[in-house]
Amino acid sequence: MPEPEMPVPLDPVDMNEVVGSHDILLVTLDTLRHDVAVELAEAGRIPHLARRLPHGRWEKRHAPGSFTYASHQAIFAGFLPTPAAPGPHPRLFAASFAGSESTADGTFVYDTPDLVSGLAKEGYHTVCIGGVGFFNRQGPLGSVLPGLFHEAHWEPEFGVTSPHSFENQIARAEQVIGELPAEQRLFLFVNVSALHQPNWFHLPGATREAGDSRATHAAALEYVDRHIGRLFAAASSRRPCFAIVCSDHGTAYGDDGYTGHRLGHACVWTVPYAHFFLDPAEAAR
C-alpha cells in the first residue's frame, strides 16, 4: 500500500505572545475542499493566497464537523481543524479543563466557554461578518453563532446567492476597522460564503440549469483570491495581525455518488488550513 500523505507541519506559534499584542483574523472559507485548494495553489491560480501559505502549501487537516454549524461551534470552542497525521497536536487556543492532551505551553488558555469570550476578556473587540445562513440572525438558530460576538453583521448581499458576496463582506470589514479606536485590539471573524452552493455564477459560461460543479467551486475560490488581499490589508492596517485561514468542511460533487455535505466522505472531512502573520508595513504599500 502507498504511504499516506503527511502534512508539512507549521512552525510553532506561542499564542500567549500573540494575544494582547496582535489583532487576530479568522477566516473560514466555507465549504472549501482541500483537493481543490491544493490544485489551484499548485497551478498558480490563487496567487494572493498562495504567497501567504507557509512553505507555499496548504496544510492538510481534518475538519471538526461536517457542516457549518457543528464545525463553527467546535472552532469557537478552540478546536480548529486538526492536522491530518497522528497526534496529539498542540492547539493554538483551548478552554481551561483538566486532562487536555492538546493544551501545550504555547496554547492560549481561557477560562470562558469559548474563544470569542476568552479574547473579549483579554480586551479584544470581537466582530463577526457572517456569510452563510447560520450567521444571518433571521431566527433563533441563525443567531447562536453571531451572538457570541460584541458586534455581528449580516446582509443578503453577504450570503450565498450574491455573486459579489466577498467584496461586500470586505467593504463592511474595512468600515468596522476604520471606526475602531487605534488602541483597541480586534478579533475579526469572516465567514466567506462564496464557495458554498450556489457557486455556478463564478465560472464564465456556466448556467443555473447546469448547476454547481467542482469547476465552479474552483472558480469561486479564484474569485475569493482576487479580493482577499484587501481583507489582509485592512486586518493589518493598525498593528501586526495573526491570521488563520481555513475551511470548516468540504463538500461533494458526485464523489462516490455523494452530493453536498453533512456526511462522512473524505472530501467533506479533509480541509485546507494555514496560519501566518500579516505585517502592517505591507498593508501600507
UniProtKB/TrEMBL annotation:
Name of the protein in its database record: Metalloenzyme domain-containing protein
Domain Sulfatase N-terminal intervals: 23-265
Superkingdom per UniProt: Bacteria
